[in-house]
Amino acid sequence: MTASVVAVLGYAGVDDLDLVGVHAVLAKGGLPVRIVAGPPTFPTSGGLILAAGAGLDALATATAVVVPGGRGAATAATDPAIQTALAGALRSGARMYGVCTGSLILAAAGLAGHRLAVHGAKRDLLRGLGVAEIGVGLVRSGPVCTVGGDRRASVKSVDLGFEILADLAPHMVAEVQARMELDPGRVASEAAA
Fold first, then answer.
1. 8 Å CB contact between 117 and 135
2. Is 13 inside any structural domain?
3. What pLDDT does residue 53 have?
4. Rounded distance, CA 103 to CA 8, Å?
């Protein structure tokens, strides 16, 4: 059996915690995780400079793609290279995941027909991209799972990381929870068909 490869999208202005939170859970679960981006390095919204482990072309072979949010999400949503790479990953059968304003990027890449969750203050931007149904919390809609729009004592990206781990390596969830000494604060709800 081939190992699941998870690609986490990096871009200028990505939120540090949105990217690193999901990455930490998946890496502790033993999944191969790659940060992919157009440029070889990119600044986060918090001022870190991160290096991509692969270019956007790596999205084509990913089992799952995570799109974190951040101050740069609206700009990244208009990047034709990102839109094309994400659309290709979806056509290849990759599962798609988004943290907060990462849903703006997913909607622009062709997933506007799905129920997507986003930061409460960004709902109008998501509607402007054609999303009719905006979810709250951790929401699953077909091949897409997003988190945002609610306030909890847990971290959105960490909760999404555990959801991805449950999808791709369910036997690792309890072990990673024990190692991190935490339980996710959100459970995915299914969108109405």
1. yes
2. yes
3. 95
4. 14
From CA 71, how far away is CA 181, in angstroms rounded? 30
Q: Which residues contact 7 (CB under 8 A, 6 or more apart)?
A: 33, 34, 35, 36, 54, 58, 59, 62, 64, 65, 66, 89, 94
- Show Cβ contacts of residue 15 under 8 Å, excluding neighbours closer than 6 positions: 44, 45, 46, 68, 69, 70, 71, 99, 100, 101
DSSP string, 83-112: HHHHHHHHHTT-EEEEETTHHHHHIIIIIT
Residue with the two structure tokens 């059968």: 93
Q: 109: how many CB neighbours lie within 10 A of its CB? A: 23
What CATH code is carried by the domain that includes residue 185? 3.40.50.880
Residue 12 belongs to domain spanning: 6-190
Q: Which residue in 44, 75, 45, 79 sits closest to 59, CA to CA?
A: 79
Task: Enumerate residue ranges in the chain where pLDDT < 50.
Answer: 1, 193
Cα–Cα distance between 10 and 35 in angstroms, integer?
6
User: What pLDDT is recorded for position 1?
Assistant: 40
Beta bridge partners of 34: 7
Does residue 121 lie in a domain region? yes
Number of domains the chain is built from: 1
pLDDT for 27:
97
